[in-house]
Amino acid sequence: MRLAFFYVLFDLLVFTVLFVGAQRLRISTTYQAEDIGLEPNEHPQCRAWILWWKTQKAVIFVGDILFYSICPRTITTIVDLTSEELDLLAYKRRRVLVTNDYDAYKYHLPVEVLGNYTEVDIDFENICRLHPRVLRIASVSAARKHHLNLDVVCRSYADFRNANTYNTTVSDTVEIESVTNQAGKDEDIIIHVSDLTSNIEGKFGLNSQLFEIHQSIAIFASKLCNGTSAYDDDEPEDIQYYTG
Question: How many CB atoms lie within 10 A of CB 235?
């Protein structure tokens, strides 16, 4: 009886030590995946997800066999799939938990990561949307799309210009800088907002969801506040969603 009790107590202690020592890393954004070495642009899971999004609202041919992905009345494209692409779609995973070297190799995760974490939770569905690390907002239409408060931005822009400086740190997560644009002529005044708290305290009004998928937001105040952007959409500010 005492021996059985000892084994139960020993198992409980081992479980407790393992549980306390366990460290889980969650990777849920494109830039986090890049930082850890997953290479989203080339990853097989992302190729599978992008192909899957492409097949939505589509007529799908596999050889001479016809499939409908959804109701025929909503079809917008035609997709001809090869057998290799079918295999790729079968490989698609929404989310995986990597706990050993075998899974790390299977999902192209550098095995060195498991030296620091016992579990790695990978959200491929969101990673593979290939959101940019820094979201660029440089047109009025983009500002409206993301609910940016232009009054606040333009006041900050005016204060920065009047201060006659090249860089101002407003807080640990908000910075205003002056950089020479690609044309090499005029200067762009850019406000960098790096987290949700700064967005709220600074009253920028940006959609809170943006900070769940981007590391920071770059607001091109000079374009928004001096009329050079107008309502043009020639700036690459849009989020790239692969949803068809």
Answer: 15
What are the φ/ψ torsions at residue 96 (nearest 5 degrees)? Answer: -135, 155
Residue bearing tokens 């409206």: 144
Give the angle 7-23-124 at the CA atoms, nearest 5°: 125
Q: 3-state DSSP call for residue 142?
A: helix
* Whole-number pLDDT of residue 65: 45
Q: What does the pLDDT look like over 174-210, one tens digit per residue?
A: 788 877 665 555 678 899 999 999 899 889 999 999 9
Write the single-letter amino acid at 125: E
Q: Looking at 149-193, list the stretches that DSSP marks H as alpha helix, in order from N- to C-terminal side.
A: 150-163
Is there a contact between 89 and 52 (Cβ–Cβ < 8 Å)? yes
pLDDT category of residue 173 using cuts at 50, 70 and 90:
low
Q: Could you give the C-alpha distances from 52 to 74, 93, 138, in angstroms and in order?
A: 17, 11, 31
**Whole-number pLDDT of residue 38:** 96
